[in-house]
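Quiz preparation item.
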């Protein structure tokens, strides 16, 4: 799902509708209510460059929290976790 807030700055909130979001790993539909996410999802976007076999491709996917936890548990090097003190 594209999230370009500057492009939406002139759009009224009643005109924007959330498209269904699914986990690309397990296929689970991410819960929403009245167009608002009721659970978080990991969103990834990668624009591939010159030194790859996917040059000029953009890959995007979503992962539910359960699949994210399962995925990162397989990493040889643990992820870095930063605790935030406030939400901006």
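Solution:
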């Amino acid at each position: 799902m594209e999230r370009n807030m500057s492009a939406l700055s002139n759009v009224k909130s009643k005109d924007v509708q959330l498209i269904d979001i699914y986990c690309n790993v397990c296929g689970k539909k991410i819960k929403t209510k009245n167009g608002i996410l009721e659970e978080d999802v990991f969103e990834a976007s990668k624009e591939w460059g010159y030194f790859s076999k996917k040059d000029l491709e953009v890959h995007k996917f979503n992962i539910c929290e359960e699949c994210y936890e399962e995925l990162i548990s397989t990493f040889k090097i643990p992820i870095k976790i930063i605790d935030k003190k406030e939400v901006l």
